[in-house]
Amino acid sequence: MEAEHYIVFDLERNFRPYQSDFPAEIVDMGAVKIDPQTMEIVDTFSAFVKPTAPLSKHTTKLTGIEKQDVKQAPRFRQVLAAFRSFIGSSYILVTWGKEDYEFLKEDCTRHGLDCPDMSKERRFDLQQFVFRAYEELFPNQPSLRLAVEQFGLEWQGEQHRALADAENTANIFLKAAAERDLKHAYRRSTDVVFIVEGALSEKGKRKLMRWIIKEMKKRKADHLTWKSFLRSKTWANAMEQHEFDEAAIAQLEANFAEALQNVKKLQQAKAKAQTAATPAP
User: Fold this and answer.
1) Is the pTM of this model over 0.70?
2) CA–CA separation, 276 vs 280, rounded Å?
3) What are the b/e assignments for 108-128, b being 16+ CB within 10 Å?
């Protein structure tokens, strides 16, 4: 998809690392606008958002955002309108990971507002791109901070502040655009990620278990076979990310039954722990 601008954006939320009735609302939005023709930064966007719930101490500790920063800030409705004006109608959103899309969607739903178009063709997950396109740099999916260091870039601003994180993401994006084809679907070598000396690595086994957990959640049932797994969207997504040869697929199949049993054991243990923690009536 051709677009007038790349919009690299980041969000920070008011959240609590414990169960709470308060919503984890967006309190900080930052974005960088890039001209695709010149690949230069042409504008930036930054705004605090006044949450409906008190700002948590955990949020302040992580981001440095204080209560006075958001006390006089506009509400989400006003900030979203300003953000939509900033991004325009022809854009591709660039983020570090997928979470911010869900966060933005949640707050739009919470406030009964229409979200900007975040359909698949308008999104670019830079974290996933560099993980695939720079296999020699990243044995594991990198954090934003690690990626900045590995690319030899200098960190800009305060970590976990929306505009600073967006600016650092934009710097990685510009470097990647100069060195790689942004439109190419890079895939990691299966031998490096999964197979060690002809056998499925421990990392490969953990990955297989995560795929099984993901697929079982989608099905809302524990009945899953290797054949049904091969027909799943979870497996289709895995094949988009990795290049599997016959030997790798054979190893995954050979380990599938054991991985499935391990997943079921974990789920049973989790259910027992939740039952034990529930107070008696």
Assistant:
1) yes
2) 9
3) beeeeeeebeeeeebebbbbb
List of domains in the chain = 5-179 (3.30.420.10), 188-277 (no CATH)
Cα–Cα separations (whole angstroms), residue 178 to 37, 139, 172? 13, 22, 10
pLDDT digits (tens, 9 = 90+) for 164-212: 999 999 999 999 999 999 999 888 776 556 888 889 988 889 999 999 9
The rounded mean pLDDT for the chain is 92
| Residues with Cβ within 8 Å of residue 142, at least 6 apart in sequence | 127, 130, 131, 150
- Name the nearest CA neighbour of 206 among 244, 262, 150: 262
Tokens linked to 60: 């302040």
Rounded Cα–Cα distance for residues 137 and 127 (Å): 13
215 touches 209 (CB < 8 A)? no
Q: Each residue of 102-112: pLDDT tens digit? A: 999 999 999 99
